[in-house]
Amino acid sequence: MGKTAEQMNPIDQKKMCCMEEGEESGTHMPDELQRNLMNRMSRIEGQVKGVKRMIDRNVYCDDILTQMSAVQSALHSVSRLLLESHINTCVIERLENKDPEIVAEFMTTISKIMK
């Protein structure tokens, strides 16, 4: 598994998701973080397919619910990793640059993920 944001040095953290100078749109994240997120999402995709098979086979509801809880936990874990990266890079950089819109944008993001 790749390094988490807290295991990276500050220079690497800074490069994790902020747009590089000259880029027109989108974000930039290091290959290692992107691979880590993609691997986790692939595992989650497999878990979801497993839940679908369980439903199709009419498996005991409690067992299906347990697997659904595992999927939700895995998704929350991926969200936390990406949020941590976003805070340690994009948000901090924009705060340092005195960007007045970052706080409102970040609060909107937090509201969306806390639903």
Rg over CA atoms: 18 Å
Residue-averaged pLDDT:
84
Enumerate how many helices there are, as a single number.
4
CATH superfamily: Metal-sensitive repressor, helix protomer
Which structural class is indicated by helix and strand composition? mainly alpha
Just name the CATH architecture: Up-down Bundle
CATH class (first level) name: Mainly Alpha
**Could you name the ranges where pLDDT drops below 50 across 5 or more consecutive residues?**
8-16, 20-25
What is the string of SSEs from the N terminus onward? HHHH
| Beta-strand content estimate | under 5%
- Give a short account of the largest sheet: none
* Terminal-residue CA separation: 29 Å
Number of strands: 0
Number of domains: 1
Reported by name, the CATH topology is Methane Monooxygenase Hydroxylase, Chain G, domain 1
Task: Walk me through this protein's architecture.
The chain has four helices and no strands. Helix 2 runs antiparallel to helix 3. The chain is 69% helix and 0% strand. The longest helix has 36 residues, at 61-96. It has helices spanning 10-14, 31-56, 61-96, 102-113. It has a single domain (29-113), classed as Methane Monooxygenase Hydroxylase, Chain G, domain 1 (Up-down Bundle), CATH 1.20.58. It is elongated, with a radius of gyration of 18 Å. The relative contact order is 0.13. It is an all-alpha fold.
